[in-house]
Amino acid sequence: MRDNGARTLSGELLDWYDHNARALPWRVGPAARAAGVRPDPYAVWLSEIMLQQTTVVAVKPYFEAFTRRWPTVADLAAAEDADVMAAWAGLGYYARARNLLKCARVVAAEHGGIFPADHAELLKLPGIGPYTAAAIASIAFDIPATVLDGNVERVMARLHDEHTPLPAAKPILMDHAARLTPDERPGDHAQAVMDLGATICTPKNPACGLCPWRTACAAWEAGTHRELPKKTPKKAKPTRHGVAYLARRVDGAWLLETRPESGLLGGMLGWPGTEWVDLTAPLPGTEPPIRAEWRTLPEEARHTFTHFHLRLTLRTALLPMDREPERGAFVLPQDFSPADLPTLMRKAFDLARPR
DNA sequence: AAGTCGTGGGT
DNA sequence: TACCCAAGACT
């Protein structure tokens, strides 16, 4: 049961949201929503997938490009896998793109191209977990589901001065968030809490003077807002190394391969190469993907992934027309764009390209 | 149920 | 420089 205090808090937050909502390409703002405009569930879903662990600034151009190229879920379901992966290149967490296509095809084939207006049904779809199911249910369909993302966790930890470290604190914070979720305007409420976390209740230097919940905030009262939420310390990243082979044919074609569906950069285009092993182990010796005179570049490509650093030794070669690769396939210049590569592979290209 | 899975910007 | 963080999901 939601008490009067909770109802008041949500009301104060909605008043704040009515005047301070961020204008976002995928959002129906509070005024339009009050006038009866409904969000497009496809746009809500697409934006929520893109926004998983990704900043608004990074998502904007990708969202625009995707909706321009694939205006409906049926359009996306009919797209080629390689086109979608290339369009996602640079955004990261590529399993999202693979699941995006799977989900679009399930919605098109099993739901008549209509996203189910049901939290449990949404949760069954590929790439949609607890947060995203609640976000789509509330934002697209005004179902009173509770979103718990990084913003909401931080806001709840401070509002209730909760010192239990994440992720152990999640159930507690979810309980707090659920109590605040109103039956009226649950979609605007969900977006309002996240906007509050993104613009006022920020990780560093929160703007408590502008916060509609300041007088109710237990951490503000205790003076602990700057140290919350607590988090369990992370492990240090090890460093790995490997070799990549960048072969250019005399007609300008590059030798590329599509990486395996699962694992790091799964399903993405990349340069053939060795496994990546811990720096304490010797550099793996793998046969080059094609017979050639290989030259090792003086500079290695450096890149940091979620859980390790990578130093990639780059070897290049210029090839005649009549030589068959043992791995990968040549991609003609008119079919190749560096923008289709994940960032590591694009870094390697930038170091190896003729200039 | 910890580990896996990207990237860019801010500090 | 090194670390943190961002509308998490999947295994």
Automatic annotation (TrEMBL):
Cited SMART domains: ENDO3c
Cofactor note: Binds 1 [4Fe-4S] cluster.
GO biological process: base-excision repair; mismatch repair
EC class (word): hydrolase
One Pfam assignment: NUDIX_4
Superkingdom of this protein's organism: Bacteria
Catalytic reactions on record: Hydrolyzes free adenine bases from 7,8-dihydro-8-oxoguanine:adenine mismatched double-stranded DNA, leaving an apurinic site
Start and end residues of each HhH-GPD domain: 50-199
Cofactor(s) in the UniProt record: [4Fe-4S] cluster
Gene3D superfamilies: Helix-hairpin-Helix base-excision DNA repair enzymes (C-terminal), Hypothetical protein, domain 2, Nucleoside Triphosphate Pyrophosphohydrolase
Keyword Hydrolase in annotation: yes
Molecular function GO labels: 4 iron, 4 sulfur cluster binding; 8-oxo-7,8-dihydroguanine DNA N-glycosylase activity; adenine/guanine mispair binding; metal ion binding; oxidized purine DNA binding; purine-specific mismatch base pair DNA N-glycosylase activity
Swiss-Prot/TrEMBL keywords: 4Fe-4S, DNA damage, DNA repair, Glycosidase, Hydrolase, Iron, Iron-sulfur, Metal-binding
EC number: 3.2.2.31
UniProt record similarity statement: Belongs to the Nth/MutY family.
The protein's role, per its UniProt record: Adenine glycosylase active on G-A mispairs. MutY also corrects error-prone DNA synthesis past GO lesions which are due to the oxidatively damaged form of guanine: 7,8-dihydro-8-oxoguanine (8-oxo-dGTP).
Name under which the protein is recorded: Adenine DNA glycosylase
Species: Roseivivax halodurans JCM 10272
Lineage: Bacteria, Pseudomonadati, Pseudomonadota, Alphaproteobacteria, Rhodobacterales
